[in-house]
Predict the structure.
Amino acid sequence: MSATELASPAVTQMKKVCLLTEIPRLGARVVKTAAHGNIAVFRNAEDEVFALEDKCPHKGGPLSQGIVYGKRVACPLHNWNIELADGCALAPDQGCAKSFAVQVQDGTVYLDI
Amino acid sequence: MKKMKLVMVGNGMAGVRALEELLKISPDLYEITVFGAEPHANYNRILLSPVLAGEMTIKEIMLNDVDWYEANGIKLHLNKKVVKIDRVKREVQAEDGTVEPYDRLLLATGSNPFILPVPGKDLPGVIAYRDIADTQAMIDAAAKYKHAVVIGGGLLGLEAANGLKLRGMDVTVVHIMPWLMERQLDRVAAGMLQKSLEDKGLKFALEKHTAELTAGPDGRVAAIKFKDGSELPADLVVMAVGIRPNTALAESAGIYVNRGIVVNDTMQTYDPKIYAVGECVAHRGIAYGLVAPLFEMAKVCANHLAHMGIGLYKGSVTSTKLKVTGVDLFSAGNFTGGPDTEEITLNDPVGGIYKKLVLQDNKIIGGVMYGDTADGSWYFQLLKDKQDVHEIRDHLMFGQNHLGNVGHQGQNKAAAMADTAEVCGCNGVCKGTIVKAIKEKGLFSLEDVRKHTKASSSCGSCTGLVEQLLASTVGGAYQPADTAAKPMCGCTDHTHEEVRAAIRANKLLTHEVTYKFLEWRTPNGCASCRPAINYYMLSTWPHEAVDDSQSRFINERAHANIQKDGTYSVVPRMWGGVTTAHELRKIADVVDKYKIPTVKVTGGQRIDLLGVKKEDLPGVWKDLDMPSGHAYGKSLRTVKTCVGSEWCRFGTQDSTRMGIELEHDLFGMWSPHKVKLAVSGCPRNCAEAGIKDVGVIGVDSGWEIYVAGNGGIKTEVAQFLVKVKTHEEVLEYSGAFLQLYREEARYLDRTIHWLSRVGLDYVKKHVVEDAENRKALYARLKFAVKDYADPWRERAEGKVAKQDFEMLSV
């Protein structure tokens, strides 16, 4: 979910990740978590942020390393195109990476895990 | 804003394709209504023959079912024939009184079969071959009756005859001309075709003029009588003598019609609010009856309806393939030739192979193939691209050189493969899977097959085979893309060349400016065009264009090769493949310190450290203290060398030194694809220079330079460019060749792909014959690589983007 559409938990219950500016535009950072493994936090050209498990539904490629464009990322291993909003592959490919709620407040990125 | 109303009359393949294209690029612009005269949604008309032959069912050939229309918010009127267009009120009216207003009208009324005006043409049992109803009528007749006569020995007639024969009927094909398929075949090929169809049990009555059809006692057709007095029994007569554009509706509305509904290059009729596509259209005087041109029209029409206004339809060259199992036949363009044309023929009547190519001004303008059509798509590509073939003329007839292709057991004839045989060795896709997908999912293009099956989507070595499968499954509907005019990707209609020219002419230096200037459809491109644009800007405006690392593939962003588990591999540069005890000791220490699991010697004479964690990369580079080998980049990879005259008893030249000099000279060179070099010290060629982008071979009197070799997916032997005397000349000629490639090739072209388009003569003209141009090219290359900083050192010293390598935690 993008930050603006999010209607869920208050930021206070979410985990602070980094400053928005610490994620490259049209890029991602990897967040190590105990419970969910690696999570990729993406930032697009409009400064929207998205969080997906860092694992392509195809062969587990690290999505964080892919090329981000529009609201999608292309997996670096075999070029599957994944929607950042829900983690699902573009047809005709099938499968979804788990997505997490994430939001930006006062320039800081918070992740709901 | 209120949506505009788009009404489409006709629910066939061309029209629906136009809607699909429109929905892709501008889904919210129109409220769409469709009228179809048939009770079915959109089906794949070209697969009616396999249905008749019992190889497929109606259900399998549906392209868009009723749900598709609903899902896309399209109002569908089936079984309603539109009878009136009121251009003043801008509305159409159907037979049953249904009225729909329009802002834009799209006519896709298709064509009608031509019925011979002979007595008895309206008798029961006399039908055309056009739609599902006709096909069903034939299937029903085959169950009850014995004698079938098909009038018309063209593509459709033969497919109908074959289907009826397979359903057990005794079939005679009646044809007015001296040989079959005279619009697609010459006499020799047609003779071979007739022979093989006769072997299947079909009968032929050539040069016969139908006089009348007569009825039996039950009122149904019983016989066909010819002008020469002879006659044949006939319980079923299928007229397949051609089609006529269905223009009645347009004509009744006063729209200009000449053979078909006359349209301009944006598919507009004389009333600019009314568009027309498909078989009902006459474009530049031609009415097309094959699917491929109709799809091209659909795309242009959609583009214009979406207010993009870029696409123009300029007519099509078409090719034909007969869909009769076991008959291999291909024809394209002008195959009869004329006074200014030349022909190359190969004729092996016993082996059942006939090939003819027609050339004009060293370009293929047409061809016919029978028995062996494996290279049909390749010839057709050369024809469409108007490529000069004089350099390959001596072996043109033997087809594209498949010898170097690997990954599919040396097969290059798809027809000969079993359904279980693997076509795509990268993704493990078998022939049966591909054919099934083509049929069931209604695929028409290589791109479609790649998307749905993954076949040919990785290394591409099986592309030829997949093209053959497409051609044999959908027939003439498969047309290889016009590579010369292919848009870069879905984000634009511009070709690579157009984009490059714009970057040069307008000095575009950033992605943002380029996308805006070229009116990209997406805000920041896609994973396919972004790296290309980045390269085009950098290679055109070195030291000025902004290198956007987020537009580079991960390997070039991380300066290491990503592996299947997300770790990276590190290959330090070893100039000319020469190393020292000191370097090896450092490498060994790094392997120990970072617990690197695999150490491997590469094919390019250096050492690969595999399984390095991303966060360890800067440390590894710092401890190695060796320059990047760029084993990850579209850039200079290695210069492989043999030891040469310094040690070798056969060596005539110091190949090692030459190699090291070349590698230093080209260090920091980004290119459309990877670039590999080799230098051998004598013609024994131990450095394997014959399969490199630039291969240099020392001889006693100097150096021979070979270019555009490739040892990968398809083995390509490098071609001799020039012989020179000095090391300096080797640097200048090699550099100039590579600079020309850097400036002109499309992104992801290897040197051979580019060279096979432009030809070796072109390269010689610019690099060998024109000394001034060579020096200018070389100077531009030297300028581009000037002051190149080793990327590993920069990152090891923490000068660049530390955050690229660090993980976060919560």
Notes: Chain A has one domain: 3-111.
